[in-house]
Write a structure and sequence with these properties.
The protein is α/β, with parallel strands linked by helices. Helix content is 29%, strand content 25%. It is globular. Pfam families: Ras. It is found in: Cell membrane. It is a lipid-anchor. This is Ras-domain-containing protein.
Length: 218
């Protein structure tokens, strides 16, 4: 799916809108990363996402370029896995998250990357995020996945790579900014269409497209 680029008030200004999806095992902190990025908040005690949650955030790459992310934060529980294609279909970019203190979470992340590379938009930008770096900063023995191993995998798979902490905000904005810089702003033009914020299925009891809370650590 292409983005939409429109001319702003400033001559030469560009505004681009892209659909982004977060994937990963339950409790790796996907929703915490989004909450930190969108609202600059962190909550230790938040319920798991049900289905998926929708949020938006806008960042400025420079004085003339603004990127808006329409973010689908998906549930990590196995019972929701079959719904994932509804959210990553036509996504321009994806963040696949794992927990650097849980070795199995990287295996799950790798399976998501393979699925995206096989079934999603062929030009999708994928970033790998090793979350919870704050835990190993305090307790180095908790690290289960070395930075070197994850970085080597990301390089081999053609992914962006960051180790992040939703709790301390380490590399969170850098992660999304790096994705924005990789997106094909110059190719969007007026051919693009706006990402549909209603796309997908939201199983939460709240009204769809109005995500606020109840969505971390999953």
């Amino acid at each position: 799916m292409s983005s939409r680029v429109s001319t702003g008030a400033r001559p030469g200004a560009r505004f681009a809108q892209f659909k982004l999806v977060l994937l990963g095992e339950s409790a790796v902190g996907k929703s915490s990363l989004v909450l930190r990025f969108v609202k600059d908040q962190f909550d230790d005690y938040r319920e798991s996402t049900i289905g998926a949650a929708f949020l938006t955030q806008t960042i400025s790459l420079d004085d003339a370029t603004t990127v808006k992310f329409e973010i689908w934060d998906t549930a990590g529980q196995e019972r929701y896995k079959s719904l994932a294609p509804m959210y990553y279909r036509n996504a321009n970019c994806a963040v696949v998250v794992y927990d650097i203190t849980q070795a199995s979470s990287l295996d799950k992340a790798k399976s998501w990357v393979k699925e995206l590379q096989r079934q999603a938009n062929e030009n999708i930008i994928i970033a790998l995020a090793g979350n919870k770096s704050d835990l190993v900063a305090e307790h180095p023995d908790k690290r289960a996945i070395t930075t070197a191993d994850a970085e080597a995998y990301a390089r081999e798979a053609g992914l962006l790579f960051f180790e992040t902490s939703a709790k301390t905000a380490e590399n969170v904005r850098e992660l999304f900014t790096a994705i924005a810089r990789k997106l094909p702003l110059e190719q969007a033009g007026n051919r693009g269409m706006r990402a549909n914020p209603r796309q997908g299925v939201d199983l939460r009891p709240e009204a769809p497209g109005t995500q606020g809370g109840g969505a971390c650590n999953c």
